[in-house]
Amino acid sequence: MLAPKPAASVATEDPVRVTLKSWFGFDSFRPGQEAVVRDALAGRDVLAIMPTGGGKSLCFQLPALLRPGVMIVVSPLIALMQDQVRLLRDSGISASFLNSSLSAREAGETSAALLRGEYKLLYLAPERLLMPEFLQGFLPRLREAQGISGFTIDEAHCVSEWGHDFRPEYRQMHILRAHFPEIPVFAFTATATGRVRDDIAAQLGLRETACHVASFNRPNLHYEVRPKTDKSYAELLARVRGRSGANNGSGIVYCLSRKRVDELAGKLAADGVRALPYHAGLDAETRRSNQDAFIRDDVQVIVATIAFGMGINKPDVRWVVHYDLPKTMEGYYQEAGRAGRDGEPADCLLYFGVGDIRTAEFLIAQKIDPSSGEPMAAEQRLARQQLRKVLDYAQSLECRRVIQLRYFGEEYRAPCAACDNCKNPRPVEDWTLEARQFLSAVARLAQRGQRYGAAYVIDLLRGAETQKIIDRGHQQLSVYGIGKQRSQDEWRQLVRALLHQGIVDETEDAYPVLRLNVASLEVMKAQRQVLLAPQPKPNRSARSRDEAPTLATGAEALFERLRALRKQLADQQGVPPYVVFNDVSLRQMAESQPVDEAAFMTISGVGGRKLAQYGAVFTAAIRSYRGELGLPA
Ligand code: ADP
Ligand code: MG
User: Fold this and answer.
1) Before 168, cis peptide (omega within 30)?
2) For residues 435 and 432, what is the distance between their CA atoms, to the nearest angstrom?
3) Which protein residue has the closest C-alpha to ligand 1 atom 18?
4) What's the CA gap between 591 and 251, in Å, rounded?
5) Please, where in the chain does CATH 3.40.50.300 lie?
6) I want to staple 353 with a disulfide (CB 3.0 to 4.6 A). Which of 228, 305, 370, 512 is the partner?
7) pLDDT for 281 beyond 90
8) What pLDDT, in 10s, does the model give residues 411-450?
9) Of 17-21, 54-58, 157-161, 574-578, which gets the smallest average pLDDT?
10) SS3 assignment for 175-236
């Protein structure tokens, strides 16, 4: 493999730094990367837990270049392998994969090339690795011929039954240890729970492991929860069209069911948005082509169930909208976390409505053991606990980051400056007294065996002289008129909040009536406070135009032009646009406008190979843009 010219800007002779710039185009490490790289270079077993977008790939790819031999990388999905190999090759790094997408002849050629030392990295699925003829035949020959620099287990949470993507084949990976005791094992995952971490170390038989746990904070992500209303769709549309002042660009909308996915994707398409659906009900070919269209920027939006995600390495997803309530906090963190892998600002928005609680509870009640027809009590209990956490997140007035990170056992100090609650702290009001008045009215009516809806109870509290109240003699009740001090709207807001916070229940009939529950009793017994955020004024939580990440005037137009150039070059090579350059690189080009090689080399993501391949065409585009504006080229 031909080493590219080291960058002129790399002053240090440290081979790690030189490799970082000349092959990967980066001037500095992301947090946590360097320590992992150094341990891997030293040949220690490594377990690295880093969030999505933390830059785990580099942590084994860079050591693969500096250590003798071939790095064997185990990856659970063909799409992931192909993506990484494409990215590596576009940086001039010789890498290949062996999987079922290859014919026997192609696989044979790849194997021969490996033995000749033509590749530094080999990606494969665990099934392949574990085949006896591979494990006991090919790998020992490869070790003999070229050496093996390490076994990398990417997405290592797949070994754990506690993880969200358990794959039984991953469980046999410990045989690597028996056959190749001297070769270090490097395990990577974005799964944060302690149980999964311990399981990985045990299952893979890691020794004297260098364990690296990075923070799970994703500082470039902006978190927000908005009430789900009949305006939510219009808001989504404005975002997609870039009219809301928020990040537009590529985005994912997550919905609860296949039906909702199809409906929403259809609606967006009818409104002229380039959007496609993705869910397990579509055939494999349609799923693949829809996913490809998204990755290649042929469509802007993917509307999906949670079936979509694993295997999506698209770094420039600018926003993720949850149109329905997620089932677990971990799920939310992972799904929202697919935004902004490239470290550029991105938005994570959750729409939340009272109806979502009912739907979630309904789905939990459906968890029935198919053989006995009995409810699955343990599953239901777990699902309820998880729902509770999600509701706490959605309804909280606390910093969203603090809540998310606390869930993973990490302490974060608010305010964070990039969530709705920190940017627009809503003063909290104590409505416990009113809540007690309201609940006692419901209780008083229930004692008489009478159940009513919220509107009637509000009339009663406000001392309204309606015909119904008079007919029923409810003016005699002690609660009649005790709530005059609050307006009808204020009472309505309180009731919404009580329902929202699960402090009172409502039946699902055509004329819903109120029912007390355990939480109601806690409030009535003064064991629980009821806090309310004043209603947000319309749009106060939306970011204003000038807060959104924008480029300097003029740079915006150049950015768009470079983006079109990137797409054209990518299509010519049949690769996704981000393989050519990611958004960070394009933005830097649009801002600093390099017109010669030396300046171009200072752009993040530009290494020796990228300079050779793309330097001339991009600097030419920048020169012509500047020329049109009469600027010196
Ligand atoms: P992970 O596997 O941890 O989710 P990736 O390895 O896919 O993350 O990296 C995410 C993005 O971060 C990629 O676009 C990659 O090019 C970029 N990246 C990685 N390391 C650096 C770095 N040191 N400087 C700048 N960008 C980086
Ligand atoms: Mg990864």
Assistant:
1) no
2) 5
3) 55
4) 24
5) 31-213, 221-423
6) 228
7) yes
8) 999 899 899 999 887 777 899 999 999 999 999 999 988 8
9) 157-161
10) HHHHHCCCCCEEEEECCCCHHHHHHHHHHHCCCCCEEEECCCCCCCEEEEEEECCCCHHHHH
Ligand 1 nearest atom to the CA of residue 50, by list position: 3
| H-only helix segments in 366-466 | 377-395, 400-407, 420-423, 432-447, 454-461
Report the topology of domain 221-423: Rossmann fold (3.40.50)
Q: Are 299 and 275 in contact (CB under 8 A)?
A: yes
Residue 420 Cα to ligand 1 middle (Å): 27
Atom of ligand 1 nearest to the CA of 28: 23
- As annotated, the residues of the chain forming the CATH 1.10.10.10 domain(s) are 429-532
User: Which pLDDT value is given to residue 349?
Assistant: 97
Q: Please check the confidence at residue 367 and state whether its pLDDT lies above 80.
A: yes
> Would you mind telling me the total number of residues written for the chain in this entry?
633
Residue range 553-628 forms a domain whose CATH class is: mainly alpha
* Overall pTM surpassing 0.85 (yes/no): no
pLDDT per residue as tens digits for the range 162-221: 666 778 888 888 899 999 999 999 999 988 677 888 889 998 999 988 999 999 999 999
33 alpha carbon to ligand 1 midpoint, in Å? Answer: 10
Cβ of 291 below 6 Å from ligand 1: no
| pLDDT band at residue 12 under the 50/70/90 scheme | low
Of 315-319, 503-507, 531-535, which gets the smallest average pLDDT?
Answer: 531-535
Tokens matching residue 229: 């209303």
State the CB neighbour count (10 A cutoff) for residue 362.
10
CATH superfamily of 31-213: P-loop containing nucleotide triphosphate hydrolases (3.40.50.300)
Cβ proximity of 350 and 327 under 8 Å: no
Residue pair 430/523 in contact by the 8 Å Cβ criterion: no
> What residue spans in the chain does CATH classification 1.10.150.80 cover?
553-628
Distance CA 521, CA 364 (A): 24
Q: How far is the CA of 300 from the centre of ligand 2 (A)?
A: 22
pLDDT above 90: percentage of residues in the chain? 67
Give the residue whose CA is nearest to atom 23 of ligand 1: 29
Verify whether ligand 1 is closer than 6 Å to residue 52 (CB atom): yes
CA distance to 62, 269, 337, 400, per residue, from 347 (Å): 30, 22, 10, 13
Domain 429-532 has CATH 1.20.120.1460: no
Is residue 576 within 6 Å of ligand 1 at its C-beta?
no
